[in-house]
Design a protein that fits this description.
The complex is a heterodimer. By secondary structure, chain A is of the alpha+beta class. Chain A contains 20 helices and 27 strands. Chain B is of the alpha+beta class.
Chain lengths: ~700, ~500
């Protein structure tokens, strides 16, 4: 027994000992050589109509993937139709062809789990077909039809436009899209093709002809490169492809012109106030470079020292050591067709916005001021060289790289050259390119965040430029007729005398009223007491609603709302609305008559009465219809954007039952209409000046 | 050409397609490349040979997640996940013993500060003292730290895609390496789970708070979903905040996190998958060498809470600056329940692809929605989960109209207005999606490990297609009538604050 136990113990001890022996320290591991790898061949041939084919066989799965890369892009589109290429790309697919409707095409494809998609971006367009191998022969003619004969029906164009517009109204809901969009504008310019916004107006300007033209110019043989990968034999599929695609006309090759960027370095600090967040999104930087730059390899090394997954300095310091961010990044961008951007960015809580910005600036300066360490440099080069296998970790990656190099006019050997060059980069090189290409003293800084929480942190970067990101709503469609300024002046003076018989008032203008609001859900009854001072431009409104008493206050351009004891700041949009009403009031207009731009447009009949029509030209144009005898403003109209209907409406105020007290004439009954539909009735109970 | 196209298309449209019998063939072919083994200590490995390129992807799946968190510590599963990247006793430090001493003292000081903070009348001086101690030991501990050394080691050897993810019912850790570096993965992976060190813990909690601000506090959809979970679920932890409520994140200490790790990171909860250009025998040897000596003292506890039946519809509305978002959910079943396949198919028919009911009607024809999507398995799949419907109304569309329109589509299914063609189409697409997913090492490794880890058999990834094939039109109608009912649903909305005000602001002087 004892002997057996001893034996067992010995065996156990030995095996554990062996295990411990075999378990090395990570830095003692000896790696076997890498398995051999044969880069798949890309078979290339050209048709007479200019189409170039790239084929790669891949028998692993029973699929065939065909992708047409088209030389076209948004860069061809004029500013007033921004978004055209995107809609063309969408409707090309959604609208079906002249032989098959969009719905029928969808069913045909989805019954077979087949995919066909089209899209057009800024610098290129694409059409792709991804099908099970057995369906390829049947579906290829359908794909060719899609390329050549898209129907662009009005209903699908309308749908695409509706979706674009909905997207536009949602573009301010998250900080990142706002930040990227506005930052690009700072670098490239608001009107630049590289940064311009798609707006509701530009979408409305796009016609069916525009789309048809754009497609016809772009999707021709001379502009096409087609990549095919999948379960086929290259020799067998060649004739099938040639036969099918020869039907596409050669057309004329499109030249994409990329406008020059006349960049001027400057220091700016820009802020977008977004009150519903507790974290700032920061982007900072300046113009970058292009791929052809001979310093490209050195810049890539510099980039990876700054930011490379978890390994770069930004992550290590700003995130892991300082705990300031989950997301922090930066790189000197080199684009193919036009200069990229040098940018760095971070998302950090409002309170540490400046601290994070300064931490990033420190790291940028460090690249210029200190040589990088030998360890850092060799790590970057090791990371790059040891992950080379991943450049071609799928057969598709070989195909994609070749096509994108050809499209960009780069040598097919470009990547190999890059590998050589990166290995040769020195410590001096990194510091030199950092000094030459980075300008930490001349940056655009953009912050999207909560102004109340951020406070004055940004003042240290200079005079803060507040960026207005409000979405431009469709331009007013009212016709502008020139009027008579002298007549306008005369009539506004008469109106002022009528509304304020004793001249200007001193003190607060107070009134109490009941207000019925007509909504689709029913009537709502409110009681209002309002105190306004037209000199100091302050106002307090106490509104008794069925639910609660709400107090709104405007003072020094700031608004607050109080309900149930809770006070909160008035959202800027609402404050603007309240102030706009303030400036429209007859009393305000009368007091400020001398500062108004007023035109007389003649006697006009409205609702079976004749009025003197004057127009006040201000931020919102007001049309006042004055009683020819009393000069009281009986009707006031103006145009306003209504978010609920998504368009502009005409608001009409009808004032009657005028009574005087304390030197002010006030209409005791006011009806308000929105596009001729009654929305409210206000009945005043008392008014006074205190 | 046009005539030829037209006649081809007419021919194709007329064909009623027989579903292709791919899956059985796929599984057989696939199985030939799979080697599975379990070490004596219970650790399970799945190896798949896929020598397309000399690379391999490595996944460590742990059958633990947000649902396993103790009360008062939501977010702890995710916090621990972050800690796994901080190295070990040998990686990431110049002197572990010294470092650990200071880490322990630092955590002790933090716990004392925390306790004082939550006293009815906190002693400010004591708090300041504890905090001073905390910072002192934190600085000392940090003096031994080699930040991000784990990442640097693997990246230097060519690792890509280094990351991890935490869900309600899973946590996984993954990266890819050149195939000849496989031993490095075994070495470091075993090490970081055998010898975790909670370094830079409090800095990392700050990072996680930023992650929270980014994904939840400052994002409309994140806010809506966090709110939705807490209202839709009453008992089951699927309703908790996955990233963690801010007060819980603050209150979680190293001691708590280590406790969580020891309780749940047990051998029975681990599944490993390696896919790529690898030799299964070599992998086995390495597994024995590096993982063979890991012993667990127990099997991990299992969750027993079941969500009680909902008694009535729940609704909530958030008024804010953002544009409207609609989020609806119905309680249903777990992924192993017989009705799950029918629910998945129902979701596909309702919203997958351009031929789906909701896309065709709500997005395309009626232009009510910018987007209309359904899904099952929300927010996890292992336990009784939800069938959700999500919608973004178009610019001038009332969100209530969109909600009603979605119910109209659901009603149609309940009344049996669904076709065999739609059912076949859903299954064909599920099958094709599976086929398409087989050409990614990492994708395969993640899915295999999770399926094995949660359901006990990776083959379910393939055989579940068989379950879908058994779904009938009657099944679809039945599950719609059974689960998609008002009393079983929660409806959450974001509406835009100023659109409300337009109606009210028509008060003139």
């Amino acid at each position: 027994m004892k002997k057996l136990n001893l034996l067992l113990i010995l065996i156990l001890f030995t095996s554990l000992f062996q295990l411990a022996e075999a378990q090395k320290s990570w830095d003692e591991i000896e790696y076997p050589p890498l398995n051999g790898f044969e880069k798949p061949d890309v078979e290339i041939f050209e048709l007479d109509n200019g189409i170039t084919f790239y084929l790669v066989e891949d028998v692993e799965l029973p699929l065939i993937n065909l992708r047409v890369l088209v030389r076209t892009g948004g860069v061809l589109v004029a500013n007033e139709k921004t978004g055209l290429q995107s809609i063309a790309g969408t409707v090309m697919r959604s609208g079906g062809t002249t032989s098959i409707s969009g719905d029928a095409l969808n069913e045909l494809l989805e019954d077979r789990a087949a995919r066909m998609e089209t899209g057009i971006g800024l610098t290129s367009g694409s059409a792709s077909m991804n099908v099970l191998k057995d369906d390829f022969d049947d579906l290829l003619p359908v794909f060719i039809d899609l390329l050549q004969n898209p129907a662009f029906p009005e209903d699908r164009i309308d749908l695409a436009k509706t979706q674009q517009k909905s997207g536009i109204t949602r573009r301010n809901d998250e900080t990142i899209p706002i930040g990227i969009r506005e930052f690009q504008k700072l670098i490239y310019g608001n009107e630049s093709v590289y940064a311009r916004n798609t707006e509701i107006e530009t979408v409305d300007n796009i016609t069916r002809e525009d789309l048809v033209d754009f497609h016809a110019r772009s999707f021709v043989g001379e502009n096409m490169m087609i990549g095919v990968i999948g379960d086929f034999n290259a020799e067998e599929i060649k004739p099938i492809l040639s036969d099918a695609f020869s039907a596409i006309p050669a057309g004329d090759p499109l030249e994409l012109e990329f406008p020059e960027i006349n960049y001027e370095y400057e220091n700016t600090i820009n802020f977008v106030d977004k009150r519903d967040v507790n974290q700032s999104f920061v982007m900072l930087g300046h113009i970058g470079g292009t791929r052809e730059n001979p310093d490209y390899a050195k810049l890539q090394v510099m980039n990876r020292i700054l930011s490379d997954g978890f390994s770069g300095r930004l992550m290590r310091i700003v995130r892991s050591q300082m705990g300031l961010a989950y997301s922090v990044f930066g790189q000197y961008g080199s684009n193919n067709f036009y200069p990229g951007m040098f940018y760095a960015g971070v998302m950090t809580q409002s309170e540490t916005t400046a601290e994070a910005i300064n931490a990033i600036l420190d790291q940028i300066r460090r690249l210029q001021e200190e040589p990088v360490s030998e360890q850092e440099l060799s790590d970057v080069i090791d990371r790059f060289l040891n992950s080379l296998v991943f450049e071609y970790d799928s057969r598709a990656s070989v195909l994609n790289e070749r096509m994108s190099y050809d499209y960009a006019g780069l040598d097919p050997d470009t990547f190999n050259q890059l590998v050589e060059e990166i290995q040769a980069v020195t410590i001096e090189d990194v510091q030199e390119v950092a000094q030459e290409y980075l300008r930490p003293d001349m940056l655009h800084i953009l912050v999207v965040g909560n102004g109340e929480e951020i406070g004055d942190q940004l003042d240290q970067y200079g005079e803060v430029n507040e960026v207005d990101i409000s979405i431009p709503m469709p331009g007013d469609d009212e016709e502008v007729v020139a009027g008579d300024a002298a007549g306008g002046s005369e009539w506004i003076n008469r109106m002022a005398s009528a509304v304020l018989p004793g001249g200007s008032i001193d003190g607060d203008f107070v009134f109490e009223a009941t207000n019925i609001i007509y909504t689709p859900q029913g009537e709502m009854n409110l009681e209002i007491k309002q105190t306004a001072n037209f000199e100091t431009e302050t106002m307090i409104s106490e509104v008794q609603t069925p639910m609660a008493l709400v107090t709104m206050k405007i003072e020094d351009g700031q608004g607050t709302m109080t309900m149930g004891g809770n006070e909160m700041p008035m959202p800027p949009a609402q404050r603007d609305q309240v102030m706009a009403e303030f400036y429209r009031s007859h009393v305000y207009l009368s007091i400020n008559k001398d500062n108004l731009d007023v035109e007389y447009l003649g006697m006009q009949e409205m609702d079976n009465e004749t009025y003197a029509h004057i127009r006040v030209n201000d931020e919102i144009t007001l049309n006042l219809y004055l009683d020819p005898e009393t000069a009281l403003p009986m009707i006031t109209t103006y145009r306003q954007f209504d978010p609920q209907s998504g368009g502009n409406v005409t608001v009409k105020m009808v004032s009657s039952d005028w009574r005087e007290a304390d030197g002010v004439m006030v209409p005791y009954e006011t009806s308000v209409y929105s596009d001729d539909s009654m929305v409210s009735l206000t009945t005043i109970t008392t008014h006074s000046v205190e | 050409m046009s005539r030829k196209i037209k006649s081809t298309i007419r021919l194709l449209l007329g064909i009623m397609l027989m579903p292709l019998a791919l899956t059985a063939q796929n599984l057989e072919a696939f199985e030939e490349n799979v080697t599975e083994f379990t070490l004596d200590n219970g650790l399970h490995f799945i190896i798949v040979e896929r020598p397309v390129a000399p690379v391999a992807s490595f996944v460590t799946f742990v059958n633990v997640g947000g649902v396993d968190e103790p009360a008062g510590h939501t977010g702890i599963a995710h916090i621990f996940e972050h800690m796994v990247f901080k190295g070990s006793k040998t990686v990431g430090t110049t002197n572990w013993e010294e470092e650990q001493e200071n880490i322990d003292l630092m955590d002790e000081a933090y716990r004392a500060w925390l306790e004082e903070k939550y006293q009815p009348e906190p002693d400010q001086e004591m708090m300041a003292q504890h905090w001073a101690d905390f910072e002192k030991y934190q600085e000392k501990a940090n003096s031994y730290v080699k930040t991000n050394e784990f990442d640097e080691i693997v990246s230097r050897e060519g690792a890509t895609g280094l990351n991890a993810s935490t869900g309600y019912d899973f946590t996984n850790y993954f990266y890819s390496l050149p195939q000849n570096k496989a031993e490095l993965w075994f070495n470091l992976e075993a090490d970081r789970f055998k010898n975790p060190v909670f370094r830079e813990f409090y800095e990392e909690k700050d990072v996680i708070m930023e992650e929270r601000r980014m994904g939840v506090d400052s994002d409309p959809f994140g806010r809506l979903r966090e709110e939705f979970g807490s209202i839709a679920f009453t008992a089951h932890p699927y309703g908790r905040s996955l990233i963690g409520w801010p007060s819980d994140i603050e209150a979680t200490t190293i001691q708590d996190t280590e406790q969580f790790f020891r309780t749940y990171y047990t051998n029975d909860n681990f599944t490993f998958a390696i896919v790529g250009d690898v030799d299964p025998d070599e992998m086995r040897e390495l597994a024995e060498t590096y993982f063979g000596d890991i012993q667990s003292t127990h099997d991990a506890p299992t969750l027993k809470t079941q969500e009680p039946e909902q008694r009535g519809e729940r609704r909530f509305t958030i008024e804010e600056e953002s544009q409207p978002i609609l989020f609806i959910g119905y309680h249903t079943v777990s992924q192993t329940h017989p009705d799950y396949a029918a629910l998945q198919t129902l979701s596909a028919i309702l919203s997958q692809g351009r031929t789906s009911r909701m896309y065709k009607t709500l997005v395309q024809d009626e232009e009510l929605a910018l987007a209309a999507q359904t899904a099952v398995g929300y927010p996890g799949t292992k336990y009784q989960n939800m069938f959700i419907a999500f919608g973004l109304p178009n610019q001038e569309v009332d969100i209530d109209d969109l909600e009603e329109a979605m119910y109209v589509e659901i009603e149609k299914v309940k009344e049996g207005d669904i076709t065999q063609q739609e059912l076949d189409r859903a299954i064909t697409n599920a099958r094709a999606n599976l086929v398409r997913s087989l050409n990614s090492n990492m994708g395969l490794a993640v899915r295999l490990a999770q399926t094995q880890g949660q359901q006990g058999d990776w083959r379910r990834l393939f055989t579940r297609i068989g379950d879908l094939q058994n779904v009938t039109l009657d099944d679809l109608q039945r599950v719609a009538n059974q689960y998609l009912v008002a009393q079983n649903r929660t409806v959450g909305k974001i509406i835009n604050r100023s659109s409300e005000d337009v109606a009210e602001a028509q008060q003139e002087n």
